[in-house]
Design goal:
Blueprint (H helix, E strand, L loop, with lengths): L1 E5 L14 E5 L6 H4 L4 E4 L7 H4 L6 E4 L9 H7 L2 E3 L6 H19 L7 E5 L3 H12 L3 E5 L1 H7 L7 H7 L2 E4 L17 H6 L5 E4 L8 H9 L6 E3 L10 H6 L2 E2 L8 H19 L18 E3 L7 H9 L2 H10 L4 H6 L11 E3 L3 H10 L2 E2 L2
Parallel strand pairs: 1-2, 1-3, 3-4, 4-5, 6-7, 6-8, 8-9, 9-10, 10-11, 12-13, 13-14
Helix pairs in contact: 4-5
The structure holds 1,4-dihydronicotinamide adenine dinucleotide and the ligand O=C(O)C(=O)[C@H](O)COP(=O)(O)O.
InterPro entries: D-isomer_2-hydroxyacid_DH, D-isomer_2_OHA_DH_cat_dom, D-isomer_DH_NAD-bd, Erythronate-4-P_DHase, NAD(P)-bd_dom_sf, PdxB_dimer_sf
Pathway: Cofactor biosynthesis; pyridoxine 5'-phosphate biosynthesis; pyridoxine 5'-phosphate from D-erythrose 4-phosphate: step 2/5
Function: Catalyzes the oxidation of erythronate-4-phosphate to 3-hydroxy-2-oxo-4-phosphonooxybutanoate.
């Protein structure tokens, strides 16, 4: 079997080699010539799987180490009989922890506790549910908007987007990018949405850039309709809007899902898809694990104040990435390819927590030493 894999998919090299010839390519090297003899492609969101790439090839399976699959022309693949798979939920916890870290960073800077604030979550799937878990555990109120789910499961527990625009102190988007259909999300955060905002909410987009309309977002920010702005996803990545970068409170180069745990999950799911599709056994899958953190124990006694928040920001602090991107916005993709993948909360053990601190940190996902 021949596999062509993106050479920046972590923890992959050497794992599938016992059962396949694996050719590792940069994203730019994903050309019709280079993929035509592959049976399977292992891709990331930067590898556009279009008709132009695939037509005339013998590719039978595309498996993406990502949750989103807007980089795959699924209609063409379905027509051409090419199976395609994404990696549902692989980095959902990572995105939720990114959002939470961003909110905490701003809350600490402003001296405005998050407790008691209302967050509106737009898109309550794998990621949105994890965001809800963290925010509820921390004492925030949650409004949930998800019309496809509301239609399938009943309205209970869901609110219209307008209610979020009116009542939320923070709005965070976690929908897929879809361009067609009744629930299309392209430019969902557009002029109409921003006009309806009532409480100068903090605005977060860690879903896909085109879920917001850049001009409308710029306008809303300049007009003061938005209090704070956290952006991980941008229209037209990697060539991002420099004015928006300037106006963002926290700006990162599409790394919300880049925890080591999320990356390992994505890689493992791709290999499992290959096993299932081609009826083969990849013995080394068990070796796809994230590395142990450099300092797996977090001692709360080392912090002077805000002990819980400092513990949370130990593994990942968005300001480090934000600073780097502002200094070199032209290196957007370089930062992504050379990223130091942080571990998620579950990889850390907290020591010297009071019973109350231990309860909260456990609910957020940390290990606690009694
Ligand atoms: N920044 C990053 O690094 C990452 C970004 N993502 C993005 O986040 C998206 C969501 O991920 P998951 O939660 O895992 O996907 P999911 O498919 O589990 O959930 C998405 C939810 O959005 C809902 N939805 C669809 N259209 C909607 C609309 N018009 N309004 C409100 N809700 C709508 C769906 O019903 C579903 O419940 C992915 O598709 C991907 O584009 C995912 C991982 C990492
Ligand atoms: O999973 C998704 O969807 C994402 O947005 C990923 O975090 C993007 O990861 P890469 O495709 O850049 O590896």
């Amino acid at each position: 079997m021949k596999i062509v894999a993106d050479n920046t998919v972590p923890y992959l090299k050497g794992i599938a080699e016992p059962i396949a010839e694996v050719n590792y390519l940069t994203s730019k090297e994903f050309t019709p010539e280079n993929v035509k003899n592959a049976d399977a492609l292992i891709v990331r969101s930067i590898d556009k799987c279009t008709r132009e790439l695939l037509e005339g090839s013998r590719v039978k399976l595309i498996t993406s180490a990502t949750i989103g699959f807007d980089h795959i022309d699924t209609r063409y693949c379905d027509e051409a009989g090419i199976a395609w798979k994404n990696s549902p939920g692989c980095n959902a916890v990572s995105v939720a922890q990114y959002v939470f870290a961003g909110l905490l960073t701003i809350a600490l800077r402003k001296g405005e506790p998050l407790q008691g604030k209302t967050i509106g979550i737009v898109g309550v799937g794998h990621v949105g549910k994890e965001v809800e878990k963290l925010c509820s555990a921390y004492g925030m109120n949650v409004l949930r908007n998800d019309p496809p789910r509301a239609e399938a499961e009943g309205e209970d527990g869901f609110v219209p987007l307008d209610t979020i625009a009116e009542q939320a102190d923070i709005v965070t988007f976690h929908t897929p990018l879809t361009k067609e259909g009744r629930f299309a999300t392209r430019h969902l955060a557009g002029e109409d949405f921003f006009r309806k905002l009532q409480r100068k909410p903090w605005f977060v987009n860690a879903s896909r850039g085109a879920v917001h309309n850049t001009d409308a977002l710029l306008h809303a920010r300049k007009e003061g309709k938005i209090g704070e702005l956290i952006l991980d996803c941008w229209e037209n990545e990697p060539d991002i809007n420099r004015k928006l970068l300037e106006l963002a409170t926290i700006a990162t180069p599409h790394i919300a899902g880049f925890s080591a745990d999320g990356k390992a999950n994505g890689t493992r799911m791709c290999l499992e898809n290959i096993e299932k599709f081609f009826q083969v056994k990849i013995e080394k899958i068990g070796e796809v694990v994230p590395p142990v953190p450099e300092t797996p124990v977090i001692d709360l006694d080392r912090f002077d104040g805000n002990r819980i928040e400092q513990a949370i920001l130990t593994g990942f602090n968005p300001l480090t990435v934000d600073r780097a991107l502002r200094e070199h916005p032209d290196r957007f993709e370089w930062f992504r390819a050379n990223y130091h993948h942080p571990r998620e909360y579950g990889a850390y053990t907290i020591v010297h927590a009071t019973p109350e601190e231990a309860g909260l940190l456990r609910r957020l996902g940390f290990g606690i030493q009694q």
